[in-house]
Amino acid sequence: MSVDIATVKRVARLARIAVSEEEANRMTGELNGILGFVEQLSEVNVEGVEPMTSVTPMEMRKREDVVNDGNKADDIVANAPASDRNFFQVPKVVE
Both ends of the chain: CA-CA distance in Å? Predict the structure, then answer.
């Protein structure tokens, strides 16, 4: 895949970045170099390689997924002008 000047200008316009003609020419070469490198990476055989979360072998720390209210209901409604049994009370707005 290669990028031309029109594509660079279109992407710059979509990103709302002002790009001069000289900058567009320079970016075309840079983007083509980056895309060439990415194409090289697709040629690497990674079959049998497990994904890594870090460069050092480690297991992700996990916590038990428990649903709770955080035991902070009193703190949450403490600054409310009106509350009842840890629920906010608001004026009626619909008849």
Answer: 62
